[in-house]
Structure formats: C-alpha cells, structure tokens
Write a structure and sequence with these properties.
Order of helices and strands: HHHHHEE
Number of strands: 2
Number of domains: 1
Structural class: mainly alpha
Strand order of the largest sheet: 1-2
Distance between the termini: 35 Å
C-alpha cells in the first residue's frame, strides 16, 4: 500500500514515468536479491524482502496503466493493457513456478532462482530507463488541457481526439 501511495504521488509530479517505473523494478530486485544474499529464512532477509518488494510491486500496480496510456494513448489502452495483463499474468504465473521448481530440483537451493529473478528485474529496469518518452508532455500536467485528452495526426495535420 505504501508503494501505491508513494508512486501515485510521484507520478502526478513528474513528466517522465519511465525512471519511476525503473525505480519500482529495482526495488523489487533489491527485495528478491536480499533473499539470495541472506539466509532464506532469516528474519532480516524476509523483512528487507517484504519492504522493498512490497514498495516496488505496489508502485507497479499504480504505474503500469499510466505508462501504457501515456506511451500508447487512450485509444489503444484497452487492447494493450488487456494483452499485457493476460500474457504476463498467464505466462508468468504458469512458467515462473515451473522454472523456479526446476532450478530448485537441479541445484537443491532457491539461490539461483532468486538470482535469475533479480537479473530479469534489473534488465527490465534498464529497458524501462532506456525506453524513449513517446509523449513529451503528459496531458494532466499542462494547463488548460483535460486529463485524458490526446492529440492524433490525421492526414498530416493535428486533430484533437478528446471531443
């Protein structure tokens, strides 16, 4: 819940969402990495994991719809958000536990599974940080323009699609 409030507050005050997204992914990586670095059942490892992973994940819950709407526009939001949600939840939910179980079966430990998850999160954070800002100005941050309105190009000229 703290991540939702913090990232929600930060997202309203910044024009660039990708660094905030990257920060959320790094927080999750720190949380999972703490499980790899410390003893798995250590009180401190679980505490660090819960704090950082919770902040990062809570932030992502708020942030991903904003990034999709900001980068791809509101007309494409439903299709993109639905596809991302379905694919990531279904594929990640199906493949993730099987892969972690296979790593545990092969090594006898969850250490390498945590390392792989940490690396994947850091790669995602890097990709989010390097992604270009497709819309230079967020609609809610400009004066005189309604939140959610967007500009589209129609046959070489700009047209307001909010009407």
């Amino acid at each position: 819940m703290g991540g939702r409030f913090m990232v929600g507050w930060a997202s309203e005050r910044t024009r660039h969402l990708h660094p905030v997204l990257s920060c959320c992914l790094v927080m999750q990586a720190v949380g999972i990495g703490s499980l790899a670095c410390f003893s798995f059942l250590s009180f401190w490892a679980v505490g660090v994991f819960a704090f950082f992973f919770g902040l990062g994940y809570g932030g992502l819950v708020v942030l991903w719809p904003l990034v999709v709407g900001h980068d791809f526009g509101l007309r494409a939001f439903g299709a993109i958000a639905g596809s991302l949600g379905t694919v990531s939840a279904s594929l990640g939910g199906a493949v993730g536990p099987v892969m972690v179980g296979a790593i545990f079966d092969h090594t006898g430990s969850y250490f390498w599974a945590f390392v792989v998850c940490t690396i994947l999160l850091l790669l995602g954070a890097y990709a989010a940080l390097m992604a270009p800002e497709l819309n230079t100005v967020r609609p809610g941050l400009t004066s005189g323009q309604a939140v959610g309105s967007e500009r589209a190009t129609v046959r070489g000229r700009s047209a307001d699609t909010s009407a």
